[in-house]
């Protein structure tokens, strides 16, 4: 399964945040599934509607990601 990429800097790692401001690093597969990079981590409590790029200032929803390099 391919990973979706940041529309600005084309990296594949993002983070999401929870109400406590904690960050969870994730990737997004091309079926728009958000996956923690640590397999034992849980998405519970995290806001999956907004992704923040680890490589640039971009943030947005999974629907704004690209599969084009
Ligand atoms: Zn980026």
Overall geometry? globular
Q: Strand portion, in percent?
A: 25-35%
Give the strand tally. 5
Low-pLDDT ranges: none
Q: Give the number of domains.
A: 1
* Portion in helices: under 10%
| Distinct small-molecule ligands in the complex | zinc ion
Q: What gyration radius follows from the Cα positions, in whole Å?
A: 11 Å
Helix-strand category: mainly beta
Q: How are strands sequenced across the largest beta sheet? A: 3-2-1-4-5
**Helix-strand string:** EEEEE
> How many helices in DSSP terms?
0
Mean pLDDT: 96
Largest sheet at a glance?
5 strands, antiparallel
Distance between the termini: 15 Å
Structure explained in plain terms:
With 69 residues, the chain is mainly β. The protein has one domain. 0% of the residues lie in helices and 26% in strands. The protein is built from no helices and 5 strands. The chain is globular and about 35 Å long. The structure holds zinc ion (ZN). Zinc ion binds next to loops.
Topology:
Blueprint: E1 14-17, E2 23-28, E3 34-36, E4 51-53, E5 59-60
Antiparallel strand pairs: 1-2, 1-4, 2-3, 4-5
The structure holds zinc ion (ZN).
């Amino acid at each position: 399964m391919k990973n979706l990429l940041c529309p600005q800097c084309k990296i594949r790692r993002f983070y999401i945040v929870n109400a406590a401001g904690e960050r969870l690093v994730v990737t997004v597969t091309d079926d728009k599934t958000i996956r923690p990079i640590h397999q034992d981590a849980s998405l519970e409590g995290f806001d999956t509607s907004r992704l923040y790029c680890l490589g640039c200032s971009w943030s947005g929803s999974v629907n704004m990601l690209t599969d084009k390099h």
